[in-house]
Amino acid sequence: MIPASWRNYRPGRLARHTAILSAGLGLRSGAQALVFLITAQLLGSQGYGAFSATLALAGACGVFVGLGGHVLLMRDVARDGSCYRKSLGAALVVYAISLVPVGVAYFLAAGWLLDEIPWSVIALVGLSELALFPLVQTFASAYQGVERIGRAARLLLVPVVARLIAAILLITLAYLATAPTDLLPSWAMLYLLATLLAVLYASQRLYRDLGPPAAPGHEAVRAYLREGSPFAIWGSAHKLYLDADKFLLAALATLHSAGVYSAGHRLVDLVTLPMQALLGAAAPRHFRAGAQGLAEALKAVRAIALPIAGYALAAGMGLTLAAPLVPRLLGAEYEEAVAVVQWLAWLPMVGAGRLLSQRILIACSMQVFVMLAAVVGAVVNIVLTVWWIPIWGWKGAAVATYGADFLTTLFMLLALVRAHRSKPPMQD
After folding, report:
1. pTM for this entry
2. Which of 37, 89, 120, 122 could form a disulfide with 216 if both were Cys (CB 3.0 to 4.6 A apart)?
């Protein structure tokens, strides 16, 4: 039975939802920035490079856990709230089915690419990103589906706040140490515990507000496996062309190079969070518009295109000007990160077209095109990165990332043009 609080809920305006999610993401970005500053300084460039490389690999694999069920959950609940419990049940069943094979693939890949990093770190980060964080993401998607944006923002904030507390505990461990010690395994353990606390809170909150999952039935599970796979492939490919450079730098260059590059990339990622807030707040409306056809989806997404492009331009200029401050924040060991930030400063601008194009396609259930674009971009990015890192180091990785973004955006725009000319519009 759907809770009364949900039945009585009425969606507010997009501006209010965006403000709520932006506030949540603002707090989240502030906490993430503090975690980043603390861990980058305490672990040093090599330790931070090892952690970032492991996290990047775990993130690329972790997207396959659940096979995109959280996106389908949000889509289905946004269109018909009465299906919430069975949709949540289907998402959780698919999560359980996919966890073991994805975990095996992760450990095999880590043994091949991250041979310099302790297995304890690989295992702890893997448990956090593969077994735990996908649950938080799924529960937050349920709230987004019913447009309870404030609650969704809170659920996504909880893991970061828990990690900030863990980072403060790491400071305590470093202070109490009587001799210099490797803090990387300790941070990996604290990171896992923080994510576990977030899962416990999120599940308790969701079950109380919206209710527990219900048995979905075989047909619903098969539908989620079939329809969600493109989202998972797209998500992993997306993570690969954004983050593969981090673990490839660790494998093909040095952990120091991976550390300074990851630090610069992390700063750029933090600046893009408001763009994600606007897209996240508008997602339920986009899904409803997409159910009415491509023209309605284009109209709905067009309304947020100018704010996103304007913010991306301002972000690029701000990052370029502020880059010299990086060594003051992280220490002299990260002097090279100044150039990294300046090279990557325009990624938000390049990525804006990709984000808007993929939102239109996904809203119209044309996720296969998004998947194909991401796969092509990921393959090109990995090939260029493997080719150019031995020649130009992190600069080769940066150029490869830009190239993948341009190629992916072009692919999706061509798919939109083709769909627009079709009668009726192409559907997945």
Report:
1. 0.78
2. 89
